[in-house]
């Protein structure tokens, strides 16, 4: 299932910004650390200001990060999905703050949400996913040009 | 239209002029300058109005050229001179002063014309027989000095030419005619065109050497002018370079985390506190940097939640703004100030939260670290807590 998901998302990776790290510096192009930390904090019932400050800059990068963080089986776990759905919401809460204009279009994230909705059997969770997808599309649709 | 005598070299009046001008709904004023010689003639030219002097510092006439200067257009253009001054837009009266800078015959007059046949006038009053003499070179920044490290500023070299018969002088732009250099290239460099680039904190001199060969003293003799000595125009001007070095806390209000779209501002059921800090960027001497092109960055390290270490959230420099918090921005404001908003937590349970925050200032691709602080929040009852930045910190707050 995971190879299928990655194949599905592959064309969207092509638009990512190339890493610009200097020699010896670890470049986290997909903000994996930030997303991983935010999801962990959510699991502890914690919001931090740092997450609130930096997540809204990610936009569509959050979908890519989630695909990279989880294995194909983990990403389908209802408990896991419920942890990262709010993180996706925060990443699109104000599209004006998204750093890269390309990431204001939720292409990868919507593809991920569609994929999850189509492959998860939990009816209540399907509704939660649909709600988040709808919110993301609404937020990005009404986003004024920067 | 009525105008005054046409003056000429050798009659004791020519080569300079001081003329009143007037502008209103029916009146225009025009200055006419003519080069009567066979060589180019540089002319110092300035306009007095409302107690302010406005310089034209690159006026040059080719041989036998007559130039008309429309005072209304000159005033209304509101184009600043090298001293960043303009002719007051509301000015209706003033004086035009001009002086030949070379030993070339130049004549001029100023005509005040009324549209309905009223009185117009013009006169010359000066008795300088000879051209202006070189009295030094000033170096002026086009935009600002001091500048921030890595930033640039164009310098201008202005030759000061004084009337040999006394009175205030005139400026003439020789930026492109001098050899530029720096007294300390570790502080700033200066290109061949006079572009100054900040390298490191400190002060140095921008040097403009080997400019045009000018007469330093004219001596009149029966209608003829003889130069007693010549010199190359040269000068120096200081400029300082500021390096972002530290931050000063200006204020730090507590805020609520409503911007994250959660009920974190519900102080009855959530634990935590958060803060926004207004910083002033200071240079290596503790002086404010008034630059609006600095980009505040942060790294967040050593994050510990109730004793449990987390991954470093932003191990590489990341923008501190903009956020949804009012006042935050990607750049500093024109006073070199910025909000970092916020630091804090919002939790469903009591929490002790610590992290190390490094703040740096990004300028032209280089980050200058300016602050490293250990932050702690501690909340033991719903909606309340305290926040500080460690022992001896400059911020503390409670709510």
What does this structure look like?
The complex is a heterodimer of chains A (146) and B (399). With 146 residues, chain A is an all-alpha fold. Chain A contains seven helices and one strand, in the order H-H-E-H-H-H-H-H. In chain A, helix 1 runs antiparallel to helix 6, helix 4 packs antiparallel against helix 5 and helix 5 runs parallel beside helix 7. By secondary structure, chain B is mainly beta. The radius of gyration of chain B is 31 Å and the shape is elongated. The longest helix of chain B has 7 residues. Chain B starts with 15 loop residues before the first strand and ends with a strand. Chain B is 2% helix and 52% strand. At the A-B interface, helix 2, strand 1 and helix 3 of A face strand 22, strand 24, strand 25 and strand 26 of B. Strand 1 of chain A pairs antiparallel with strand 25 of chain B, so a sheet runs across the interface.
């Amino acid at each position: 299932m995971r190879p299928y998901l990655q194949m599905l998302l592959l064309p969207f990776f092509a638009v990512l910004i190339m890493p610009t790290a200097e020699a010896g510096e670890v470049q986290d192009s997909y903000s994996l650390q930030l997303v991983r930390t935010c999801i962990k904090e959510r699991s502890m019932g914690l919001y931090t200001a740092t997450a609130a400050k930096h997540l809204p800059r990610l936009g569509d990068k959050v979908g890519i990060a989630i695909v990279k963080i989880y294995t194909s089986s983990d990403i389908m776990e209802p408990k896991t999905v419920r942890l990262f759905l709010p993180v996706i919401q925060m990443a699109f809460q104000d599209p004006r703050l998204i750093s890269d204009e390309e990431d204001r279009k939720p292409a990868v994230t919507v593809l991920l949400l569609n994929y999850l909705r189509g492959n998860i059997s939990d009816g209540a969770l399907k509704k939660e996913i649909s709600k988040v997808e709808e919110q993301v599309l609404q937020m990005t649709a009404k986003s004024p040009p920067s | 239209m009525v105008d005054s005598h046409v003056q000429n070299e050798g009659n004791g009046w020519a080569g300079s002029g001081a003329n009143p001008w007037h502008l209103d709904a029916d009146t225009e004023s025009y200055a006419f300058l003519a080069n009567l010689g066979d060589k180019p003639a540089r002319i110092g030219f300035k306009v007095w109005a409302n107690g302010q002097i406005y310089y034209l510092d690159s006026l040059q006439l080719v041989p036998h050229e007559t130039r008309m200067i429309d005072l209304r257009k000159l005033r209304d253009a509101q184009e600043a001179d090298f001293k960043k001054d303009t002719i007051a837009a509301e000015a209706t009266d003033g004086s035009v002063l001009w002086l030949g800078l070379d030993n070339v015959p130049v004549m001029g007059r100023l005509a005040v014309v009324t549209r309905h046949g009223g009185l117009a006038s013009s006169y010359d009053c000066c008795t300088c027989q000879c051209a202006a003499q070189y009295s030094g070179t000033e170096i002026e920044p086009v935009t600002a000095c001091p500048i921030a490290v890595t930033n640039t500023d164009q310098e201008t070299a202005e030759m000061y030419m004084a009337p040999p018969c006394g009175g205030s002088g005139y400026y003439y732009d020789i930026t492109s005619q001098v050899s530029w250099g720096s007294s300390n290239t570790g502080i700033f460099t200066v290109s061949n065109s006079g572009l100054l680039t900040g390298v490191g904190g400190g002060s140095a001199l921008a040097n403009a050497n080997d400019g045009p060969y000018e007469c330093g003293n004219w001596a009149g003799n029966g209608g003829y002018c003889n130069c007693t000595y010549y010199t190359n125009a040269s000068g120096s001007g200081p400029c300082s370079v500021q390096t972002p070095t530290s931050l000063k806390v200006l204020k730090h209000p507590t805020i609520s985390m409503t911007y994250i779209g959660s009920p974190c501002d519900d102080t009855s059921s959530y634990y935590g506190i958060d803060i926004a800090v207004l910083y002033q960027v200071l240079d290596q001497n503790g002086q404010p940097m008034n630059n609006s092109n600095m980009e505040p960055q942060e790294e967040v390290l050593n994050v510990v939640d109730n004793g449990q270490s987390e991954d470093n959230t932003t191990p590489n420099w990341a923008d501190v703004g903009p956020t949804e918090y009012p006042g935050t921005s990607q750049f500093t404001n024109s006073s070199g100030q910025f909000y970092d908003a916020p630091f804090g937590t919002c939790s469903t349970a009591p929490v002790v939260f610590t992290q190390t925050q490094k703040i740096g200032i990004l300028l032209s691709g280089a980050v200058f670290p300016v602050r490293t602080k250990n932050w702690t929040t501690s909340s033991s009852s719903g909606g309340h807590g305290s926040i500080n930045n460690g022992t001896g910190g400059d911020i503390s707050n409670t709510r």
